[in-house]
Design goal:
Helix content: 10-25%
Strand order of the largest sheet: 2-1-4-3
Shape: globular
Number of strands: 4
Number of helices: 3
Number of domains: 1
Order of helices and strands: EEHEHHE
CATH class: Alpha Beta
CATH architecture: Roll
Largest sheet: 4 strands, antiparallel
């Protein structure tokens, strides 16, 4: 039997700073339909059918879809932060455990 795959979509948030070139935080945005993300991020599924690259969310893209996105995401500060959307996937064994089976774990 073929193993089941799971998919997640994360918004990576990074400071716009050469001194601190690391990701500042993540937000799971898997609840936004993939078709809508393809539209917002202007992804060409023919060029990247597996969504293997990260896609920057620009202020222009956000403003165009602000009414829709504001219900899923926090307020955005494009002067201070950069936002990148990444798709992750794999089998249950491939994906790091993001939950506790026991409260004391």
């Amino acid at each position: 039997m073929k193993p089941k795959h799971y998919y997640f979509v994360y918004l990576e948030i990074a400071l716009r700073s050469r001194k601190y070139p690391y990701i500042y935080g993540f937000q799971n945005i898997s609840n936004i339909p993939t078709k809508k993300l393809v539209e917002i991020l202007e992804i060409d599924p023919d060029k990247d059918p597996n969504f293997s690259e990260g896609y920057f969310l620009t202020s222009r893209m956000y403003k165009k879809h602000e009414e829709y996105l504001s219900s899923f995401m926090p307020s955005m500060n494009f002067k201070m932060f950069e936002y990148c959307v990444r798709f992750y996937g794999g089998t249950k064994e491939d994906i790091r455990k993001c939950y506790k089976e026991n409260i004391w774990e």
